[in-house]
Amino acid sequence: MSSNSPRRAAVASLAGSTLEYYDNYIYALAAALVFGEVFFPHAGGVATLASLATFGVSYVARPLGAILLGHIGDRIGRKHVLVLILLMMGSCTFLVGCLPGYGQIGFWAPVLLVTLRILQGISVGGETAAATTLTVEVAPPGRRGLFTSFGPVGIVAGFTLATLVFLPIEALRPDQLASWGWRVPFWLSVFVMLAGYLIRAKLSEPEAFVAAQRNDELAKLPIVEVLRTHWAAILRVTFCSLAFAVDTIIKVFALSYATGQNHVSKTTMLWVLVVTHLCALATQPLLAALSDRIGRKPVFVAGNLASAVMIFGYLAAIDSGNVVLVLLAAFGSVTGAYAAINAVYPALFAEMFTLRVRQTGMALGIQIGLIAAGLGPALATAVTGGSTRWLPVAIMTAAVSLIATAAALTAKETFRTPLSDLGAPAVQRPRRVDAAHG
Predict the structure, then answer these.
(1) 58, 118 contact by CB (below 8 A)
(2) Pairing with 96, which of 165, 200, 329, 391 sits 20 to 30 Å away (CA)?
(3) How far does the chain reach from its first CA to its final CA, in angstroms?
(4) Number of H helices, E strands in the chain
(5) What is the extent of the structural domain holding 318?
(6) DSSP string covering 44-108, please?
(7) Residue 213 lies in a domain
(8) Does 163 fall in a domain?
(9) Which segment, 24-28, 37-41, 216-220, is predicted with the most confidence on average?
């Protein structure tokens, strides 16, 4: 397998995304299950809300990461930024596991937690766009959807791995969980980081990027150029990215809601998420391949419409306490509806931009939209106020799915567009970079 083959790029994207989102989701699980006690013991009834807010802080920092890392990727190289992202995220995650709690250093414990979470957010801000950009630029014509879907497959794998690691940890006695148990998943991220590094270090830059770099045809300031020439695409990606709120509501808010207000077993809910996400590992590539045949928009729009409906079923099933209903609703939400969104968005978004600004534009649009996803669990918790009123949360989640649907409908269909013709900017430049593939 050559160093810049589509398969190697897809595997590197999968490996890196697995680490990035293993890190992200162990934090999400810890925030939902234990961080309130460890870092906010005097917050009383709002301890869970405070810990979920630290989860959301990362999303606020992500646009900064999109700009900084997008600049590196669009100016210096796709491979270099992928390696940098991996090392940043893995290091911050390990350090979170080393933090003393509020009982040891008081106010400084949550301050340090938030600081590391911000650094995590900066690193994640460039991951998806960097991995997708490299992959889409080496993928064969007619298969960009399938090859770029391995990044989101890594996201699902990272979540599944994080949950499996947390299952035996969550079974510890409460005092063990609060003192050292929650730290173990954070320390284990070192091994995932090492595996991802070994894969990404062997990558080469896409031929199209190398040619543009050699001919001095790269953007000098990608953020300035993308805001001037692709502002409409950034807005479109931003609104489409609101769909990711469905994911955090399912994984973070619903987990906390089920185990808190409805007293569903934590172990049961974690296994529901594991099983449905394992199945999504199979459905996502199939849906991505479907987008290579019928288009990105039909699959993405169908996933959003289905998510808008299924969130009512999922939260109602949790409210009923019936585990079978919860599992069935989770299959519909995770393995079906959201899998369609997750499988197609990389190709859909990347194909809106030219080579000169592809990583910066995609990253910025995604991360601005993801602020809603990151703050979603805390907002949903505030809306319920510790009660069993799930309907406002379902309505809020369905609304953002419909907004994402409307935004996607305004996009051009690009699944058959040659690589060199992608992302015709709103303001044409006198020169155009012709890619080596297409």
Answers:
(1) yes
(2) 200
(3) 21
(4) 21, 0
(5) 8-201+222-416
(6) GGGHHHHHHHHHHHHHHHHHHHHHHHHHHHHHT-HHHHHHHHHHHHHHHHHHHHH---HHHHTTH
(7) no
(8) yes
(9) 216-220
Confidence of residue 429 (pLDDT cuts 50, 70, 90): very low
Round to whole Å and give the CA distance between 172 and 438. Answer: 54
Q: To 10 degrees, what angle do helices 47-75 and 358-384 make?
A: 170
Q: 146, 93, 161: which is closest to 124 by C-alpha? A: 93
Sequence letter at residue 8: R
Residues 6+ apart with CB under 8 A from 296: 145, 344, 347, 348, 351, 411, 413, 414, 415
Angle between helix 183-200 and helix 6-33 axes, rounded to 10 deg: 170
At residue 46 the predicted structure's pLDDT band, cuts being 50, 70 and 90, is low
> In this predicted model, what pLDDT tens digit does every residue of 294-329 receive, in sequence order?
999 999 999 999 999 999 999 999 998 899 999 999
The DSSP call for residue 221 is S
* DSSP H/E element including 199: helix 183-200
Flag whether 259 is in a domain: yes
Per the structure block, which two tokens stand in for 271?
């296994």
Buried b (16+ CB within 10 A) or exposed e, 378-407: bbbbebbeeeeebeebbebbbebbebbbeb
- In this structure, of 46-60, 158-172, 350-364, 401-415, the range with the lowest mean pLDDT score is 46-60
Domain with 409 in it: what CATH number? 1.20.1250.20
Backbone torsion region of residue 142, taken as left when φ is above 0, otherwise alpha when ψ lies between -120 and 50, otherwise beta: left
Cβ atoms 221, 68 nearer than 8 A: no
- DSSP alpha helix (H) spans, 137-182: 144-148, 150-170, 174-176
* Burial status of residue 127 (CB atoms within 10 A of its CB: 0-12, 13-18, 19 or more): buried
67 confidence band (pLDDT: 50, 70, 90): very high
Q: Number of structural domains, the chain?
A: 1
Domain membership of residue 426 (yes or no) is no
Which DSSP letter does residue 420 get? G
pLDDT of residue 433: 44
pLDDT in tens, 95-147: 999 999 888 898 898 889 889 999 988 988 888 899 999 999 999 989 999 99
Task: List the alpha helices (DSSP H) in 261-320.
Answer: 266-294, 296-320
